Amino acid sequence: MTKSELMEALAKKLAKGRDSLAHKDIELAVKTMLEQMTQSLATGQRIEIRGFGSFSLHFRPPRMGRNPKTGDPVPLAGKYVPHFKPGKELRERVNAAAKLSEKP
Amino acid sequence: MALTKAEMAERLFEELGLNKREAKELVDLFFEEIRSALERGVCVKLSGFGNFTLRDKNQRPGRNPKTGEEIPISARRVVTFRPGQKLKARVEAYAGSEQNDTRSSANTL
């Protein structure tokens, strides 16, 4: 599922019973949410969504890398990478569904 | 302080002028839609942010760390997240505290 398919799905669900949210609003809202999440992590702030999971930063210490072309060692600075830990509900739902579909 | 759904709804209210109920509903539905796609076995690819993919793990031996007793870890399906280029680049630039996680390095007091 891509971002635009996700927007489609949201538009369909929210259209039920009410037409106040235009597709354009949903598109903008999804972009705003993803941007806010990115901003949060980019400033070192974790994200906690109950039942979905949490995003945090993991530190990668400085190390010596290599220029793949010349083989020369290059010092690489330490950096942060985003990390996602699925929440309980997400873990359980995904795993339960997988077990069901396995059974013949 | 961590970013939560409440703050995300607040921003939709402030910036997009959705009413508070709509904003909350949209934030809830956004995460629910991702969850239900993953539940159906469908990976979710949010360009610029990252991909949520599924991995099927075989059963493997494990042990109870407390008692040392051997117990098999059953086969399972798990969600993994691979950050996208844009997210990685923006996070990499974060030169915050020297702590190796974000638990106590909130950028504001």
Structural write-up:
The complex is a heterodimer of chains A (104) and B (109). By secondary structure, chain A is an alpha+beta fold. Helix content of chain A is 46%, strand content 26%. Chain A has helices at residues 3-15, 23-42, 88-102, and strands at residues 47-49, 53-60, 63-66, 73-76, 79-86. Chain A has a three-stranded antiparallel beta sheet with strand order 1-2-5. In chain A, a hairpin with a 6-residue loop joins β3 and β4 (73-76). The mean pLDDT of chain A is 90. In chain B, β1 and β2 form a beta hairpin. Chain B contains three helices and five strands. Chain B has 109 residues and is an alpha+beta fold. Chain B has helices at 5-16, 20-39, 85-92; strands at 44-46, 50-57, 60-63, 70-73, 76-83. Residues 98-109 of chain B have low confidence and may be disordered. Chain B is elongated and about 55 Å long. Helix content of chain B is 37%, strand content 25%. In chain B, the strands form two sheets. Chain B has a three-stranded antiparallel beta sheet. Classes of the chains: A alpha+beta (104), B alpha+beta (109).
Protein topology:
The complex is a heterodimer of chains A (104) and B (109).
Chain A: H1 3-15, H2 23-42, E1 47-49, E2 53-60, E3 63-66, E4 73-76, E5 79-86, H3 88-102
Chain B: H1 5-16, H2 20-39, E1 44-46, E2 50-57, E3 60-63, E4 70-73, E5 76-83, H3 85-92
Antiparallel strand pairs in B: 1-2, 2-5, 3-4
Helix pairs in contact in B: 1-2
Properties at a glance:
heterodimer, A: alpha+beta, three-stranded antiparallel β-sheet, two-stranded antiparallel sheet, B: 109 residues, 25% strand
User: How much helical structure, as a percent, in the residues of chain A?
Assistant: 40-55%
Unreliably modeled segments of chain A:
none
What distance lies between the first and last C-alpha atoms of chain B, to the nearest angstrom?
A: 9 Å
Percent helix of chain B: 25-40%
Low-pLDDT runs of 5+ residues of chain B are: 98-109
